[in-house]
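To whoever picks this up:

The parser on our side crashed when reading a file containing two proteins. I've narrowed it down to the boundary between the first structure block and the second sequence. Both blocks are reproduced below exactly, byte for byte. First block:
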Amino acid sequence: MDVPTRQSYTMAVVDPDERTATAGITNVARSAAKAAAPTFAGMAINAAALGLPFFIAGGLKILYDGLIYLNFRNVHPPEEAEIQRKKQLAAQARASGAT
């Protein structure tokens, strides 16, 4: 999940009073990772090959996206949750009317 998508989703599912704190926490985590990355990339280049940091970064990105999906696939923004609730009520009404 890239930055704009993640921020949009996060702001949609977090209470309005907590949005500033949530944005700060996610940005601090990204900044900390950016600060440490050159050290680990240098160690990987020294230990193995020039392309190793790119493979590691790609693997971590795939892992990150997969974990985000698995953890939040059932968490919907309030607007979508309301639509889902209406669909469920309509389906229940059809089912109870059909039997």
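<<boundary where parser fails>>
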Amino acid sequence: MKTKLTAFIATLLLWTALPSQAQFHAELGYRYGLGLNEQMLGECVYRDQYKMYSNTILLNFMYDITPQMSAGAGVGFTLCETGSHGSLPIYATFRYSPLKKVPGFYAFTDLGYAPPIGPGKSITWSMGQEQTRYEGLNYGWLWDLGVGYRIMFRKHFGLNFQLCYNLQQFGGTNILVNNETTQQSYYDISDNLRHSLSAGIALVF
């Protein structure tokens, strides 16, 4: 673990220490998500039924292919304010600036996957009822589509703003199910799918 952390810090320092003409940038940012609806166990739940807010810390490594086109990779850590959602997605990102007179404005898309992290699935019995639960960070696909604006104060220092639509799968979500026939409650595992609108800000190095 210490070796991986040391390598990660060394990589970040290397990127920030590149010469001024370099086309590489690192971004460290925060994104706030406002959930619109979420599909779980075959049903669609809306935000007026429970709060679908999320907080995400992002780290991106970008390469400017041309003055109008950039690509890179990133990792995020997402925690939701309600429910048991939490994930660590790894994703690829692509940006395109269609307006030459406003080079800081761009459209972007992200596509990635959050691997399962933690003990995983467990099955126990309580009062004769099977209890299936998932312990750990949620797994699943991630897709973003939005617009952003990057303003650079120096070659390796600036700010990046983003607004986007977010589609994220929270696999391994524990849902409490009430059986009306037996009048018993039990947990079931659901691969939830959430639709959100997100806004974020990041430091650019």
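After patching the parser it read the second block fine. The chain is about 5% helix and 70% strand. Residues 2-110+138-170+193-204 form a domain with the Lipocalin fold (CATH 2.40.128).
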